[in-house]
Write a structure and sequence with these properties.
α18 packs parallel to α25. It contains 31 helices and 25 strands. It is elongated. β11 and β12 form a beta hairpin. Strands 8-25-24-23-9-20-22-21 form an eight-stranded mixed β-sheet, with helices on both faces. Strands 10, 13, 14, 15, 16, 17, 18 and 19 form an eight-stranded mixed β-sheet that branches. Strands 1, 2, 3, 4, 5, 6 and 7 form a seven-stranded antiparallel β-sheet that branches. The protein is an alpha/beta fold and 877 residues long.
């Protein structure tokens, strides 16, 4: 049986404690047994371990082997370049991983530094970390709760538990025992570590400390939640392994063929020819591996982050840009995400049946309307500062904000009718009363829960006249209250009565009241949410609401904004717990709303969608959202949310607006399209180089490229065009497509086809160029092959801009970065043929304009054929 289901005496007995607190000797024993009241988390990998782990990648291993061979053969420059590239990539990876470890540190900051306790029968202030189970703790307004506990005393205690439950309204606390199982948000006789007292006072016995608290469970969930690799990372890693193995096999095969050739022939210099065979194999490895791929992908993602920042989405973890573009399910919090996180009066009811909204002109109000507003504003402890900061209970703030909206500033009413006495709100009475003199009459003004107020009333203010409260009138009020409640509206009732100075202001005074009316309020949806949900549906993205609020409220909001269809289901956390994994799997796609959920529920929901192969985004702002934010493929925190949520998330919305997520999805989809274009560009060029090398091997020609030439092309020349392709504008249909299949490879669709035909055309052009160069000399054939390859790969940028449209069809001048990249690459190539530099790149002195024109013509011809092939292929579809 849980603590909230037991009475105080039994709990104190079971915990071997008393109202006078623990003895110091007992505290020491418990600290030795249970440790201090601090969150404990698992140790993380050291930076060195993470750094070494980056060298497990298959392509990295191949490059390391190549670098070692180059070093052994005396090619120090090539080796140093390869080592430098690997080091930079590893350092970037370690830095990103370490940045992701901040959520648990932020969680620890929520612990209260000091606590007021009773020990040895004496009140004292101690560090909160020294609290143990069984301690008696005192609470006052403004205190952070230092541990979980069962209330022993409550004096109008209200606690803000939004960081755990997601609710925007403070919880009224009581000491009564609760029967049956209830969710955390309904355990009114418990207080939880990290929550804050906003009103009243309390006394509780500690039932859980450190990781045995509800916030400790959140920490444990954060530890267990896995950091998901993005779809692109998964595909690139899988491809890297296959490519690495393939390259090693190909290199061994090439070396074996060369070795057999040497063995069967009559080698003049065995050592020289074996080294030559090695160099052929090394050239294939260098040509096949796109050394700059990781850096280029990182840069393209960074470009995406800048675009998203302009749409109020700040990316904390770079790969999230691409993940967001492939999102198929968005699990969103309600409060503050879909709604405004601001209670607002939306309706009212008077005894004559009047409902709707007040006239904005106070001079036209009836006596009943005037009295309703007077009670709402005067029997109210909230306020709004000169800076616009709202002070007090959100429900009460909504009432004075409504008065301001009706052109009746609440300060004017309070100045005109000052408070003379008061009976503060009490969770037992569920009422608040104040005394004022209005129109020369001293009156008691009361507001509270409808059922309580109705029971205290004997009369009603009907059309300005006080008449008896008949059964018919009471039925009308009860019916309207029920109708408001069914719409998930929060209802308050208002009453008054004349109150002379001779009367005593106590709980007995709140009887024989005159009923005035009721108001209804809700945390309304954001205006832009309606269109955002509709756009998400069109883009094939399923939106699910996950909230700590009540089921009725959640369903009402869900239906209003179009998130919940007629045949969709809403479940509470308890109802979800009752479902087996198989039952949840069967119903999952019909469950649009989850209410009264726990952090464990949220993680389960996210994992259930992921199990079905969906890329899942999770939004939230509270501590209770953090584990699910971390577990999701992309966690999206609100800018106004807790630091814990932000640190666990991959993205932060600065405007807390759901519509910004959909805008960011569009950017993410465009980023993925552009990354695929950049990848296709790189691999098509590398394929062309491999084809040329293999052709030279088969025909027993000299190796067409040096390792330095290939490194220059891969690392320097190809980088700029690939980055420029990352600047391409979104395709017109980008938000009309369904989310891509997570099992779709990086070469799916037209990508592989474009890599193949562009790579083959580049390879053929290089082979022809080398053949022509051989008529001069081996050195000239290398220079012409290099020139043709670098120019063909540079000009290929235009063909790579789209798999369906030609360079002119896509708008030749629409991407100025492509034109700039091609221009810079042309200058870089010109640098390699300068005197004093051309020797480094193995370009002989007799390489002149005639040879360059042949090489350039072949490169240009290959690109023109690429565009022709694209046109023919599209017509055949």
């Amino acid at each position: 049986m849980s603590f909230y289901q037991q009475d105080e005496e039994k709990i104190l007995k079971d915990l071997t404690s008393s109202i006078d607190g623990l003895q110091n000797s007992e505290v020491k024993k418990r600290q030795e047994k249970d440790g201090f009241n601090e969150l404990k988390t698992k140790t993380t990998d050291s930076a060195l371990k993470l750094f070494l782990g980056t060298f497990k990648d298959a392509m990295v291993i191949v490059l390391l082997i190549v670098a070692v061979i180059q070093m052994a053969l005396g090619d120090v420059m090539e080796s140093l370049i390869i080592f430098a590239v690997l080091m930079v990539n590893s350092i970037v990876s370690v830095v990103q991983t370490k940045k992701a470890e901040g959520s648990l540190d932020a969680l620890k900051q929520l612990s209260a530094p000091l606590a007021k306790v009773v020990r040895n029968g004496v009140k004292e202030v101690i560090p909160a970390r020294e609290i143990v189970v069984g301690d008696i703790v005192l609470l006052d307004a403004g205190d952070y709760v230092p541990a979980d506990g069962r209330l022993l005393e409550s004096g109008s205690l209200r606690v803000d538990e939004g960081m755990l439950t997601g609710e925007s309204v403070p919880v009224e606390k009581d000491t009564k025992t609760i029967e049956g199982e209830v969710p955390l948000g309904d355990r009114f006789n418990m207080v939880y570590s990290g929550s804050m007292v906003v009103y009243g006072r309390g006394l509780f016995v500690v039932t859980g400390t450190a990781n045995n608290t509800e916030i400790g469970k959140v920490a444990s969930l954060l530890d267990s939640a896995s950091n998901k690799a993005t779809p692109l990372q998964v595909k690139l890693d899988a491809f890297s392994k296959k490519l690495g193995v393939g390259i090693l096999v190909l290199c061994v095969l090439i070396f074996a063929i060369q070795a057999v050739r040497i063995y069967l022939g009559e080698p003049k210099d065995l050592t020289t020819e074996i080294i030559h065979a090695f160099m052929f194999a090394v050239a294939v490895a260098v040509a096949a591996i796109p050394e700059a791929l990781q850096s280029i992908v990182t840069i393209v993602l960074s470009v995406g982050t800048n675009k998203m920042a302009k749409k109020h989405a700040i990316i904390r973890k770079l790969p999230a840009v691409e993940t967001l573009g492939s999102t198929s399910v968005i699990c969103t919090d309600k409060t503050g995400t879909l709604t405004q996180n601001k209670m607002t009066v939306v309706d009212y009811y008077l005894p004559n049946g009047q409902t709707g909204d007040f006239n904005a002109d106070p001079t036209s109000w009836s006596i009943s309307e005037n009295r309703l507003i007077e009670i709402a504003v005067l029997c109210n402890d909230s306020g709004i500062s000169e800076e616009g900061q709202e002070i007090g209970d959100p429900t009460e703030v909504a009432l004075i904000a409504y008065s301001n909206k009706l052109n009746l500033p609440y300060q004017n009413l309070r100045s005109k009718f000052p408070r003379e006495d008061e009976l503060p709100f009490d969770s037992d009475r569920k009422l608040m009363s104040t005394i004022h003199t209005i129109d020369n009459e001293r009156v008691l003004l009361t507001k509270g829960g409808p059922d309580v107020v109705f029971n205290r009333c004997t009369s009603v203010l009907l059309d300005g006249e006080v008449v008896p409260l008949t059964d018919e009138l009471l039925t009308r009020f009860s019916t309207q209250n029920e109708e408001f409640s069914n719409r998930a509206l929060r209802v308050l009732a208002y009453a008054y009565k004349p109150f002379s100075k001779d009367n005593t202001l106590d709980a007995d005074a709140e009887h024989d009241l005159i009923l005035v009316g009721i108001t209804a309020m809700i945390d309304p949806p954001r205006e832009a949410v309606y269109a955002a949900i509709d756009e998400a549906n069109k883009a094939g993205i399923h939106t699910v609401m996950i909230t700590g609020d009540h089921k009725t409220t959640a369903k009402a909001i869900g239906r209003e904004i179009g998130l919940m269809a007629e045949d969709d289901i809403a479940l509470t956390g308890q109802e979800l717990d009752a479902l087996s994994d198989d039952e949840l799997d069967a119903k999952l796609e019909k469950i649009s709303v989850y209410a009264r959920v726990s952090p464990e529920n949220k993680i389960r929901i996210v994992r259930a969608w992921q199990k079905k192969g969906n890329i899942t985004a999770m939004t939230g702002d509270g501590v209770n959202d953090a584990p699910a934010l971390k577990q999701a493929d992309i966690g999206i925190a609100m800018g106004s949310g807790t630091d814990v949520a932000k640190d666990a998330a991959a993205m932060v919305l600065t405007d807390d607006n759901f519509v910004s997520i959909i805008s960011a999805v569009e950017v993410g989809r465009n980023v993925f399209d552009n990354i695929k274009k950049a990848i296709a560009y790189l691999f098509a060029g590398n394929l062309g180089a491999i084809i040329a090398i293999i052709a030279a091997l088969v025909m027993d020609w000299v190796n067409p490229f040096t390792a330095l030439q290939l490194l220059f092309i891969n690392l320097v020349n190809d980088s700029l065009p690939a980055i420029a392709l990352g600047m391409e504008k979104a395709e017109p249909d980008v938000m009309d497509r369904k989310p891509r299949d997570v099992n779709e490879g990086i070469f799916a669709g037209d990508t592989l086809k474009s890599v193949l035909y562009r790579g083959i055309l580049i390879g053929i052009a290089v082979i022809i160029s080398q053949y022509i160069g051989l008529s001069y000399s081996n050195e000239m054939s290398i220079a012409m092959a290099f020139t043709t390859l670098i120019l063909a790969r540079t000009l290929q940028t235009f063909a790579a801009r789209s798999n369906t449209q030609t360079a002119f069809g896509a708008g030749f001048f629409s991407n100025k970065y492509v034109l700039l990249a091609v221009g810079v690459c042309s200058v870089l190539y010109a640098f390699t043929v300068l005197p004093g530099v051309r020797e480094i790149f193995s370009i002989p002195a007799n390489f002149g304009w005639d040879q360059w024109l042949v090489a350039a013509g072949l490169a240009l011809g290959a690109v023109i054929l690429m565009e022709i092939t694209k046109i023919i292929t599209n017509k055949l579809k």
